[in-house]
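Reading a protein record of the kind used here takes little practice once its layout is understood. The reader may check this reading against the record printed directly beneath this paragraph.
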Amino acid sequence: MSSTSPSGIPIRADVQEGYDVIDGRLEGYLVKRPIRISYEVVSDTEVLAQFAEANFSVSGISRQDAFQALTEEILAAFDDWTADESNLGPGPKQQLAILRQYLGKGTP
């Protein structure tokens, strides 16, 4: 099932499996490969969203909140790290290399 998040991010959801996939255009970005976001319910008021391949995770009060926060975190890290790679340590360098497999700047 395909849809768009409230912020306009195109997503494909698989409710049975408990994950969403960012696989469309993001304004200002090219999605090269689908980004699979998985979820873990931590408590009644906390959901953890994860992009495991690049070692990103963010929690929110709902699945939608966690998804939005994680997407923003991924894009902010991509922008910051590509703007100045010279000061990145080994962990962020590896994460950026993985992000580059999934994201680029611009539109297709």
Summary: Residues 2-105 form a domain with the Double Stranded RNA Binding Domain fold (CATH 3.30.160).
